[in-house]
Amino acid sequence: MTRYGVLFDFLIIGLFAACSNEQRSSQWREPEHRVHRFDHFLFACDASQVGQDLKDSAASYFPFSENGDSAFWFRQRSDSLLNALHRDLITKEEAIRSALQSCRKVLGHSAFHFPKQTPTRTFTYISPLDFDYPLFLSDSLVFIALDQYLGPSSSFYAGQPSYLMRGRSMEFMALDLAEALAQRSLSTLPSQGSDLLSAMLYEGKVLYLTHLLSPEREPHEVLRYTKEEWAFCAANEASIWAYLIEQGALFSSDADWKRRLLLPAPFSKFRLTHRYTDTGPDRPMDRLADRRKAHAARRSRCERSHPLPGRKRPIENLEVQTMSKSSEIRIQVELDDNHVPEQISWDAPDGGVEGESADALFLSVWNKSNQDTLRIDLWTKELPLDDMKKFIHQSILSMADTMERATSQEKLAMEMRKFARYLGEEMELIERRENDPQAPDSNDG
Description:
Layout: H1 21-25, E1 34-37, H2 38-44, H3 50-56, H4 62-65, H5 70-78, H6 80-90, H7 93-113, E2 121-125, E3 135-138, E4 141-145, H8 162-165, H9 173-186, H10 196-213, H11 219-222, H12 227-246, H13 255-262, H14 284-288, H15 291-305, E5 330-335, E6 341-348, E7 353-358, E8 360-367, E9 372-379, H16 385-407, H17 410-426
Parallel strand pairs: 1-2, 2-4
Antiparallel strand pairs: 3-4, 5-6, 6-7, 8-9
Helix pairs in contact: 7-9, 9-10, 16-17
């Protein structure tokens, strides 16, 4: 959540009270759907014959056979990272089958509610750890990158932000599918307003439909919360509403509110959603499409009671049961006689990290008063040059993710990723892509 600065998200309880789980579970239809395990097919082929084998099986794997020639698929079949990921996934085959069965249940509910929009084929494959696209839809097809669900503690995810890896397990695959289907269904609705409440309404609709397609899940599971986080939201709902009204946030178009309250970040606790509790025989999409008129009426009433910007009126008995606490990260550097780092280790007790060794460290601290950045860059004298290149390359990719999450500047983040790919190719860390329209121009200064 995906959808994924430091954020502090709030939850508005009651989203999922439209009908009982028993009613929702019965809203299911056998989907006309086939699963194609391209991950199995690719690694069952001999590397020297993979191009021809794929051509012979084009009817089953046409999205792949139509993209890339024999030389490309030979490189894919021979890629050391993809082969390592494949070996790891073999040990998780039972979990994969269970997750795909859960996906089939989601598709069955989708066939009941959205028969014209339900995909008919799923393709599983192995990406080179492309964290931007764990699962995506294309017309009537679903594409699932199995290497995105290895489990948050997988060694392949080392160096990735732990708060993003929380959802990288097989149990979340079906939820990701339900959320993707929900977002696509909502794309037919009128465009949203630019204020925070409109964004809340949209997120609420996504979560409502996600749960509609995953009725076996508890509400806190749909939100990727623990039971404790869900209980905190329930205990503090009224105070959270009061705070947002007092700050004049609900009808503010300031992008910073959305960034702080809706996007994922390292210390976010709760995701902002909205309540939808209607009952009746009509389908959810029919109800959701009519919400904008009611929203406009509520906005008018609310603005009369609380003119914007927010009235400077104290809120009586505003008590929020905070879950905040201090968190400590310790870094220890051992130096030689010339003050060159010999060993680096770090501890993060809350994250279960104790005495973890490291060979390099980039630390940046922003000073708001001085409007500048303090940097501490350290690496051990035994660090291989190739490892330093990989470290720099992955750091730039992480900065691109941070840029997108913190500023919502997707275009700028994509430019950073293009540069990271160019750098990776120049340092021979990744395979150079031929005729890539998104690759940076090598003649650019």
